[in-house]
Amino acid sequence: MTPLVHSFVAHFGEMGSRWGINRTVGQIYALIFVSPKPLCADEIAETLSYSRSNVSMGLKELQSWRLVKLRHVAGDRREYFDAPSDAWEIFRTLAEERRRREMEPTLSMLRSALLETPSCEEDKVAQERMKGMHDLIELMSNWFDDVQRLDAQTLAKLMRMGARVQKLLELTGQLKSGSKE
Amino acid sequence: MTPLVHSFVAHFGEMGSRWGINRTVGQIYALIFVSPKPLCADEIAETLSYSRSNVSMGLKELQSWRLVKLRHVAGDRREYFDAPSDAWEIFRTLAEERRRREMEPTLSMLRSALLETPSCEEDKVAQERMKGMHDLIELMSNWFDDVQRLDAQTLAKLMRMGARVQKLLELTGQLKSGSKE
DNA sequence: CCGAAATTTCAGTATTTTCTGAAATTTGAT
DNA sequence: ATCAAATTTCAGAAAATACTGAAATTTCGG
Q1: Which nucleotide does the CA of B60 lie closest to, via C1'?
Q2: Which nucleotides of D are covered by protein (CB under 7 A)?
Q3: Local confidence pLDDT in tens for the 181 residues of chain B
Q4: What pTM does this model have?
Q5: DSSP 3-state helix, strand, coil percentages of chain B (rounded to 5)?
């Protein structure tokens, strides 16, 4: 590993724990991400000094997140892995997986809590707060879904506009109300 | 704790670990969030059956995330805590803190990696990938910054528009190119 | 400024998570 | 079908993290 790659890999290892993934998984991903060619488990285990079985588990985890893809090399029985190199694609995948793993379970918990009949004043207040949380998460979940469908270029354009979108919104608001009158 | 509150608290405890926070911290937050009045550390420790010192640490953590606010009750020396109940405000705070804790360190690591002179072909490829990641994170970071300044109402409107924003963008694109010709 | 009430710190323990190595299973070329 | 190469599983060891209780510190009413 070159010093450049080493510092990238180390950073992802440390960051991993702030996310839900552990150090090993973070490092494996970083290594695959910057590698010019697909890597096999043995190469990864060797480079990072982890046991073969630990790497096997890490790769399973990364596959479950759809962050790495399995490749086959002609005339080689081993499994090779590479990562999509397009940052947008990675972001989409991550957003989608997180929605599935974090937002959806929370939404369903909130929905069933909101169906309960509050048994006291305390529960009434609790439900109000939960309603606010539910509505926001649902809104964001749907938004993700919509945005997921935009192509990278449009998405980038939108982001670069940033707060200026507000101006656009005001403008269309005026057009609408203008047409009504 | 009523059964309703209990299930909410339990869910946050479990979810906590998918985030970077632990079970205790997740539960403390959930309890404060749905409580109709500010709570003091003793009440929290009692309700959740955690030691007083554990609750103290958890509250410190939540304060560092700016998810709970310290309150004082007249004629009572104890510290009471409550949580902003506006879901949008919470989302903003979280986005801001995560940017600070996750995006900024990564950006600075990437920036210094990109300043290095690549020592081999492998490093060249690595830098290309890092560049893609850097640019996306920077774009998102700036976008967060912009969006942070919009009021809740505008933000909600934007989200509800979802993918239809694209139409708006196409429209303005036409207006612009139209005015040039 | 005293002292009781409250909070924080921290060393040690408990629990959880990660990691390994050996054994079991799967895979695919012959 | 065979069997060696490759992958996976899993029980237990190692490491990291969370939690407690006692002691230290801070805080504020008097």
Answers
A1: C8
A2: 5-10, 17-23, 27-29
A3: 999 999 999 999 999 988 889 999 999 999 999 999 999 999 999 999 999 999 999 999 999 999 999 999 999 999 999 999 999 999 999 999 999 999 999 999 999 999 999 999 999 999 999 999 999 999 999 998 888 888 888 888 888 887 788 787 777 766 655 444 3
A4: 0.91
A5: 70, 5, 20
